[in-house]
Task: inverse folding
């Protein structure tokens, strides 16, 4: 079994990105890390992750959650920088 750090390193995902995915999907961090790691391995999966992070921004914005909005925007920018559209 690989560690969460190894999973994050392998997929080029940050802890912030995975934390947001865990919150959106209502799953534990480790489960979100595994899911995100798998998705990050294909173009279609990267697009799913990009959409999940956009959803986090929209959810935080519509809910008026300023701190969550800043975190979601930061995670989205980081993800796009590390996983540019092909």
Result:
């Amino acid at each position: 079994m690989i560690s969460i750090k190894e999973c994050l390193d392998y997929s080029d995902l940050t802890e912030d990105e995975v934390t947001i995915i865990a919150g959106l999907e209502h799953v534990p961090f480790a489960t979100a890390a595994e899911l995100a790691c798998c998705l990050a391995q294909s173009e279609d999966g990267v697009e799913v992750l990009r959409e999940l992070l956009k959803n986090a921004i929209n959810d935080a914005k519509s809910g008026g959650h300023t701190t969550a909005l800043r975190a979601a925007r930061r995670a989205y920018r980081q993800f796009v920088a590390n996983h540019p559209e092909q």
Observations:
- The CA atoms of residues 24 and 55 lie 8 Å apart.
- The chain has one domain: 4-82.
- The mean pLDDT is 89.
